[in-house]
Automatic annotation (TrEMBL):
Feature: DNA-binding region: 32-51
Keyword Metal-binding: no
Keywords for the protein's UniProt record, in alphabetical order: DNA-binding
Keyword Transmembrane helix: no
Domain HTH tetR-type: 9-69
Entries under PROSITE patterns matching the protein: HTH_TETR_2
UniProt-listed InterPro entries: Homeodomain-like_sf, HTH-type_TetR-like_transc_reg, HTH_TetR, TetR_C_Proteobacteria
UniProt name for this protein: HTH tetR-type domain-containing protein
Amino acid sequence: MGKRELNKARKRAEIVDIATRSFFEQGYAATTMSAIAEELGGSKATLWAHFSSKEELFAAVIDLQVGSFSRDIDEVLTSQTYSVPALRRLCMRFLECLMRDNAVRLFTLILSEGERFPEIREMFSSRGPERVRKCIVKFYATQFNETEAERLMQMTVSAVSGYRSDVQLRPKRPTKAEQEDFVDCLVELIASRVNLIDES
């Protein structure tokens, strides 16, 4: 990468960083391109040269957050076939990723403003959860047919996402041991279903 391209990439990353803070702290509606340009310290032309709209900038924020999330999920699934230990590693990593501060803040933002701005909910769904679901289906499909892999994915995602939503309403976050206990119970339930599939 040449010096010009490197500087352009750095400036783009700086813009996305500023936008991420703004979206998380002020919300989607209250964040403006003008305010981001002002914090950036350059002209509006600099911002517009990288992003043609607030929607495009928000997509970049989602891609940054989801990219990190997806890499962490992929890390535990790469070359993995279904097994109970592999399933436990997946569920633990999935929960850890969902409990991260930025993941919670992005999820909260989508929930709070997704009704007013359905485009951001659709953007988030296609760029985030859909990608993760496909990875988990692929993991289950190493052992089960497509229909059952889809069912097991839905069970896994609903349980872990539901747990994350539940603990957000509690006065304090669960300990690591409590999170592991939840994952162990979930894995036991899934393994029980898998045993029923094998017996039928």
